[in-house]
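pipeline: protein-struct stage 2 | run 1193 | Protein-glutamate methylesterase/protein-glutamine glutaminase
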Amino acid sequence: MSPVRVLVVDDSATMRGLISLALRRDPEIEVVGTASNPMTARDAIKAHNPDVITLDVEMPGMNGLEFLEKIVRLRPMPVIMVSNLTGEGTETAIEAMQIGAVDCIAKPQPGDVQPFAELPGKVKAAAGVRVRPRAAGTAAESKSSATGERRRPMLASYEPDGRVIAIGSSTGGVEALSTLIAQLPENCPPIMIVQHMPPDFTASLATRLDRLYAPKVVEAKDGMPIEVGHVYIAPGGPKHLELQDRSGLRCHLVGGGPVNGHSPSADVLFKSVAQTVKGDAIGIILTGMGRDGAQGLLEMRDAGARTIGQDEASSLIYGMPRAAFEIGAVERQLPLDRIANAALVMTNLRGRQGREN
């Protein structure tokens, strides 16, 4: 197979060199060019026709977001954002992934032994992504309308039945989670999420989703109680998010090393949900590379929980949902835009009471 052709865009010569060096160590990747700003990058795209672009978030003249919007509109291709671990940088990277970037990676910090060690894997995964035009305005929806009214629930009459929703996602997950959470009412069931992201990015993701949509979205903290209308995102880093019954359902952050190459891991979350609440849960697995979450979702289904997998057509990368589907962990396979409604129907107390009466 031909190597993956990559264009590196960053205003720092040092960063261009580090990124290029990390990528050239992989024989399946070819760095076809570099650019210091969007203007020269535009010419390099025309000249080299890359398969993937790595794009700096903050650049003079035209920042990464503005350039990304032009790429998505004029020449859609896989883009990986390269960001500083600062509030502004991570917030912009999250916005970029909602616009259409495939993934993000943090710039190295002082003392990093292997800068950009994860980048070759991300680039090769991105090369297999089918980049589709994004619907205008999806990332700009607000928690309240111009009149100050909350978003209306998708169901005419919704009341949560006490069950918990657990979600696992990876590459493409920021866009998928945005689409899903945008369709939830303010009184949605409690939702726990593992999204594979670097440390610090998950806090920015939670802040942005909380600002845009009706439920209360937070980065999970150890001991935080599980409440209706709240979405808990596992913090990126060395610990896993679990559901624990400790005088009431709570978030529990636990160490133990990567599982399936990830920390936090969707498998760890799903397995804890299966053990803690058994059938009183809904498990959802979304777009992502690899197998993380498949076995845990199967344990949820075996414990009596309902399970949903994102279908291939709507997945940016159909790795995690495929792995779960192939082992029988997925009860229903649905396109992304139907998953939220399906989960609400499954957890609607009024609908359940109607069926029982």
